[in-house]
Design goal:
388 residues, alpha/beta, six-stranded mixed β-sheet, two-stranded antiparallel sheet, 40% helix
């Protein structure tokens, strides 16, 4: 392919002398125009997706809240004033400590003689100025002396390493941890999530399964469905999770999709440049807000579960209609795929309406969950369960 002219557009076109030559030229030009349209369309899609990624934050994606503070510097016009304090501006000064509370006092004396040759008479008063400085930081060094020995019977050498002690602890916890996982699988409702980290230069995943009575964490080399099958493949109650595809291993009748994640998805739709998609996203956010008004009324015991279901029913219908509308938008966008996937798991959005002990999660617990996983993977190298 010619890099300077990849579409083979005629640079210097000479008019043909025959009708056949004209037809050939028109055919070549139409082909080049068609290729140009395809490339422009592809670039427009890429440009739109890049703009959306630039607008991602913690409210419309899985990015942490800390990313919201990294704002771009706004360019301000240069001031005409000189640098430094301005006339009429009231200065700000640190309040002076009492002399008894300072660590050191240094007297800065005047020279005995003025530059004119006269004697300087010092007054009793003086100007106070205090400087705050950080003290020097000294490193605290700990030396571990590993005791060495030899067995009097077999003659085997022994060393008291941390790794050996860790293996003893892991062996002791193996049975309680297995019992804890079994107890978690018996829970009527189980919350799950996973977070990645690097260990020894390799990608690892900390899986967590949390119920109202126990939390089980396990470090795995995979984020795939096989981990779910191995750990909780026989779980028959309600699993609360995000929309990660691995959780599709469980039927939607045994799932509750986290509404905090859905709210972020709806927010992202409402911020699209496409007006139709943005309208759908805003209406979905309105449904979400109305749904949680009803849910809070139920949690505060101002309405019964029957009333909760009755008031929520129109909202379930409306959400379904909006998602259906989303499937008729631009088929080349990710919006269509999102709406279709959500409609395939539509029942999993509303499990909390009919099942006790299941919550829709208005506020994202992902950050707190990931913090727990972070602490667990820092404290323990091997799978470990924790009783709450």
């Amino acid at each position: 392919m010619d890099e300077k002219n990849p579409l083979k557009i005629p640079v210097e076109v000479s008019l043909p002398n025959t009708i056949e030559g004209c037809h050939e030229l028109i055919h070549r030009l139409l082909g080049s125009i068609s290729e140009l349209f395809k490339r422009v369309e592809k670039l427009e899609i890429e440009n739109r997706e890049l703009k959306e990624r630039l607008n991602n934050n913690s409210s419309n994606s899985s990015l942490p809240p800390s990313i919201d503070f990294k704002k771009k510097k706004q360019k301000k016009p240069a001031s005409k004033n000189k640098s430094g304090g301005q006339n009429g501006h009231k200065g700000h000064f640190r309040k002076l400590l009492e002399s008894e509370k300072v660590d050191e006092i240094i007297h800065c004396k005047l020279p005995p003689q003025c530059s004119c040759g006269g004697k300087i008479d010092s007054r009793e008063d003086f100007q106070r100025h205090q400087v705050y400085e950080l003290p020097p930081i000294n490193l605290h060094v700990t030396e571990y002396r590993l005791e060495k020995g030899c067995c009097a019977d077999c003659g085997r050498n022994q060393v008291g390493t941390v790794f050996n002690k860790q293996k003893i602890v892991n062996a002791a916890l193996e049975m309680p941890t297995a019992e804890l996982l079994a107890a978690a699988r018996q829970s009527p409702c189980l919350n799950t999530d996973e977070t990645g980290h690097n260990r020894d230069g390799k990608k690892q995943w900390m899986w967590g399964f949390v119920s109202s009575t126990a939390a089980y964490f396990s470090v795995q080399a995979s984020r795939g469905k096989k981990v779910l099958k191995a750990l909780i493949g026989d779980f028959n109650n309600i699993l609360v999770s995000d929309r990660y595809a691995a959780y599709n291993h469980f039927d939607s009748s045994h799932r509750q999709i986290c509404w905090a994640h859905l709210k972020r998805d709806f927010t992202r739709l409402s911020e699209k440049e496409d007006k139709v998609v943005a309208r759908i996203g805003k209406n979905l956010l309105m449904c979400e807000a109305e749904l949680f008004k009803v849910w809070h009324a139920y949690r505060e015991n101002t309405i019964t579960r029957d009333e909760l279901q009755r008031k929520a029913y129109p909202l379930t219908q409306r959400v379904g209609e909006l998602l259906e509308q989303g499937t008729y938008t631009d088929p080349k966008s990710k919006v269509v795929r999102f709406c279709k996937n959500l409609l395939n798991s539509f029942n999993a959005l509303w499990t909390f309406l009919s099942t006790e002990q299941v919550e829709p999660h208005e506020q994202s617990c992902g950050a707190m969950f990931k913090a727990c996983c972070y602490m667990a993977k820092k404290l323990f190298w091997y799978p470990l369960g924790l009783w709450l």
